[in-house]
Design goal:
Layout: E1 2-6, H1 13-20, E2 25-28, H2 29-35, E3 39-41, E4 47-49, H3 51-64, E5 68-71, H4 80-83, E6 88-93, H5 96-105, H6 110-121, H7 124-131, E7 137-140, H8 145-156
Parallel strand pairs: 1-5, 1-6, 2-5, 6-7
Antiparallel strand pairs: 3-4
């Protein structure tokens, strides 16, 4: 089984994926790109990722392993052909206040916080998946981890 848990930073993707990892291998987008040497640093010291390179590496992983959770916002950028291999796609959404608080705690620069809140408010990830005709479940998360997990588990018969 392949699960995709995506959403903007600060929505709880990593926390939820870690709770589900007892039956799955969690593949974080950032760590995967670093391990596969898929990125290069730009002038702003941010990693730029080649989506074709990420796609190829992701397909190789899917063809070699089962029971994976793809966790991170970058996976939503993959082409439809790869996203359709996912058994379930979950887009996590949190309140603007929660995202701001979590990203400030992680010491994100104010501009990155604004960008991420804006991305959620404009439904960037949801629109991207809809354009590719990829079915997903939108999960409105709160501070109750157990309740958030139950929202996902009810879909995957966990």
């Amino acid at each position: 089984m392949y699960l995709l848990i995506t959403g903007v930073p600060g929505t709880g993707k990593t926390t939820i994926a870690k709770e589900l990892n007892k039956k799955f291998i969690v593949v974080n987008d950032r760590n995967f790109c670093i391990e596969q040497k898929l990125g290069r640093e730009n002038s702003s010291k941010e990693q730029e990722i080649s989506i074709p390179d990420l796609s190829k590496a992701t397909l190789n992983l899917i063809n070699s392993k089962k029971n994976l959770i793809f966790e991170g916002h970058l996976w939503a950028e993959l082409p439809k052909s790869i996203l359709k291999k996912m058994d379930f796609v979950f887009v996590l959404v949190a309140s603007k206040t929660a995202i701001r608080k979590r990203l400030k705690k992680r010491k994100y620069p104010e501009l990155k916080i604004i960008e991420n809140v804006f991305s959620q408010e404009t439904r960037y990830i949801e629109n991207l998946l809809e354009q590719k005709k990829v079915f997903f479940y939108k999960i409105n998360v709160n501070n109750n981890l157990k309740a958030n997990l139950e929202k996902i588990k009810k879909h995957i018969n966990f």
